[in-house]
Specification:
The structure is a single chain. The chain is of the alpha/beta class and about 650 residues long. The chain folds into five domains: about 130 residues, P-loop containing nucleotide triphosphate hydrolases (Rossmann fold); about 100 residues, no CATH class; about 50 residues; about 210 residues, P-loop containing nucleotide triphosphate hydrolases (Rossmann fold, 3-Layer(aba) Sandwich); about 60 residues. The protein is about 50% helix and about 20% strand. The strands form four sheets. It has a six-stranded mixed beta sheet with strand order 5-6-7-3-8-9, with helices on both faces. The chain has a six-stranded mixed beta sheet with strand order 14-15-16-12-17-18, with helices on both faces. Strands 2-1-4 form a three-stranded antiparallel beta sheet, with no helix packed on it. A hairpin with a 2-residue loop joins strand 10 and strand 11. Helix 5 packs antiparallel against helix 6, helix 9 runs antiparallel to helix 10 and helix 19 runs antiparallel to helix 21.
Length: about 650
């Protein structure tokens, strides 16, 4: 059953068209992921559905009996209440019910009251409704939700105005999930969540019975949660069945079909134009008519546009200016606290040249602080740290705090790398999709993704041999994340990365180090290995990791089926190839005969120009008849040749 649909939805700001004539349908219970490059209008589309933004044109239908909940990227809270007070607003309807129940309980305590029967009936009905809606469990649900979203007992007394951006997002997500809407719409819900929170959210959403529409760049999340993908790009929307990994395969298949159809049509157009040329060149009335007919059909053809398979990507590569020594970093018993709060202690590690290390851990455990200590930007409270010979750090900070907000894009780069000319620097910025007047934008006006790209460009030009990256894929769209991952995979220096991006964690590291209060736990493998060895793999992930089938018999049956299928396909292919060869030989034979006949006609025409022949009526009549027969045979041969080309 369709509960939301859009027909020819368009959105533009002045002459800037975000998307145009977008059509889609959302069925009850759908689990939809919206993907696309930065700037394609994903958040705008969610905002239109939520009613925050009005479309420029088109029709939007939403069933009136469906309650929509919406998590925005930027979340604001009215007033200056505490975390707990803001979360409790979700249950205002329970407070009203509890107040009315108290009033009715007092009323029915007087058995002699004239309204006793009426009050008792209302009290009984209200109690049943209160229980059915979860009145006896909502307080424990609220407490558990805040705990899962990383709010301690002390945090719950914080004023909302004092919360960080990540804390505000987590509080807004908590309130949204507690409200249990029929349609759950979320814009980048996994931002600011650590791995523990991500695992819990995915588990919660797997059991969620409503409709889910989510914008996300987290490929792991999209794989686990979504069963449909809306691909928004180049101003249009294409819908696919399956999770993100299935979508990638189907999109590639669709692009391949589009490419083949385009090439096939172009080949057909060229063929028809050649046939028309040949018909006109021959000059007979019959073939001239056929040429005009084919010209009309060609003019009416719906020409397929050349498919744009790939969008423009930034061009990123990291190269070390010089090599470091064999040992990059060694630490013993590092400890760090803030006031009375212990972040971590007993941190020991040894990092060698060329290693790829990823550090994970709960929010607030001190991962960023540890990175800064390892680079010498902060001092530990206790412990020993030694940096190796010729180690040159390149640092990417997740907040882009190293950028000057008051500078322009070009000015920021020129300040850091003065030896480049403006032309050279603009060329480099173009590789990161800063084109035209984009280079004169102020850093403060850039989006999160644009700031990330600017920071990556500065890091690329640094020539550092040890890259220290704090959440390098945050704010980037999926295509840009893949570019970053490819560049990191090709880098020959040392990598130390803090990340919650599980795709990156399954691709980059040689070792994963989990930071806790009591030190680092080491896992010599990637994220799936970490899940398995740490005991944090869910039942669904275990089943996914376990090979399918029921043993050797199943494998044999599958192999036999594959062999039979392949054999049948081979036979069909051979038959098609034999038929194609037969057609090609006949087509070649016809073309040779047409060429021979055209030569014979040309020879007769040359002889007719001879005055002696022209004065012989019998010869002229005989050869005119012969030439007409040749023309008729050519026309017939062309008909057969055309059938072979179809």
């Amino acid at each position: 059953m369709v509960i939301i649909s859009g027909k020819d939805i368009s959105k533009s700001y002045g002459t800037d068209i975000i998307f145009e004539d977008v059509c889609f349908g959302v069925d009850d219970g759908d689990r939809i992921g919206i993907v696309g490059a930065n700037g394609t209008g994903k958040s705008t589309l969610l905002s239109i559905i939520a009613g925050d933004t009005e479309q420029s044109s088109g029709e939007l239908y939403i069933r009136s009996d469906r309650k929509i909940g919406y998590l925005r990227q930027q979340n604001h809270f009215e007033g200056s209440g505490t975390v707990a007070e803001e979360a409790e607003k979700t249950f205002r309807h329970f407070y009203a019910m509890e107040k009315r129940l108290e009033e009715l309980q007092l009323a029915i305590s007087d058995h002699e009251s004239e309204s006793f029967d009426r009050d008792l009936a209302e009290y009984t009905a209200l109690m049943e409704e209160y229980e059915r809606k979860g009145g006896y469990t909502y307080r424990s649900e609220l407490s558990a939700m805040l705990t899962h979203m990383g709010f301690t007992e002390a945090d719950r007394n914080k004023r909302t105005g004092m919360l960080s951006g990540g804390e505000r997002t987590r509080l807004a997500l908590s309130c949204l999930l507690l409200s249990k809407p029929d349609v759950l719409m979320m814009d980048e819900p996994t931002n600011h969540l650590d791995l523990r929170m991500l695992a819990w959210l995915e588990s919660y959403l797997e059991g969620y019975r409503g409709t889910l529409i989510v914008v996300s760049h987290d490929r792991y999340f999209l794989d686990k949660i979504c069963s449909r993908i809306f691909d928004l790009g180049s101003g249009t929307l294409e819908a696919y069945r399956g999770n993100y990994s299935e979508f990638l395969v189907k999109r590639e298949e669709r692009y391949e079909v589009m490419r083949r159809e385009y090439e096939k049509q172009q080949a057909e157009i060229a063929r028809q134009e050649e046939i028309i040329r040949r018909f006109k060149q021959h000059g007979t009335e019959h073939l001239t008519k056929r040429a005009r007919s084919r010209e009309k059909r060609l003019a009416m053809m719906d020409v397929i546009e050349k498919p744009e398979i790939t969008s423009e990507k930034m061009k990123l590569s990291f190269e070390a200016g010089f090599r470091s020594g064999g040992e990059v970093l060694e630490a013993e018993d590092l400890c760090k606290s803030f006031g009375d709060r212990l972040l971590f202690d007993n941190v020991k590690l040894l990092i060698r040249k060329g290693e790829r290390i990823c550090i994970i851990g709960d929010n607030g455990i001190g991962k960023t602080t540890l990175l800064r200590i390892l680079m010498g930007l902060e001092k530990p409270d206790e412990g020993y740290l030694r940096q190796g010979y010729n180690v040159d750090f390149g640092y990417y900070d997740q907040g882009q705090l190293l950028l000057d907000e008051n500078e322009t894009v070009l000015g920021e780069m020129k300040n850091a790398y003065r030896l480049y000319t403006d032309t050279e620097m603009r060329s480099l910025l173009g590789r990161f999709l800063f084109t035209g007047d984009d280079v004169f934008k102020h850093v403060r006006d850039l989006s999160g993704g644009e700031k990330a790209k600017l920071s990556l460009l500065k890091l690329m030009l640094s020539g550092a041999n040890t890259l220290v990256l704090d959440e390098p894929t945050n704010h980037l769209d999926i295509e840009s994340r893949e570019v970053v991952e490819d560049a990191l995979m090709e880098f020959e220096g040392t990598l130390i990365i803090v990340s919650h991006d599980r795709y990156l964690l399954n691709l980059i590291p040689d070792r994963i180090l989990e930071l806790t209060e009591h030190g680092l736990a080491e896992y010599r493998g990637k994220f799936d290995y970490y899940l398995e060895k740490s005991g944090k793999m869910t039942e669904g992930e275990e089943n996914k990791a376990r090979p399918a089938g029921d043993g050797p018999a199943d494998e044999l049956r599958q192999t036999q089926e594959l062999i039979r299928s392949s054999e049948a396909e081979r036979k069909a292919k051979k038959q098609r190839e034999a038929e194609d060869r037969k057609k090609a030989r006949r087509s070649e034979s016809i073309e040779e005969r047409i060429h021979e006949l055209e030569g014979m006609i040309a020879e007769i025409q040359d002889q007719m120009e001879d005055p002696e022949k022209a004065s012989d009526p019998a010869w002229m009549s005989e050869n005119a008849t012969l030439m007409a027969a040749h023309e008729e045979e050519i026309s017939s041969l062309y008909d057969e040749w055309m059938e072979l080309q179809e």
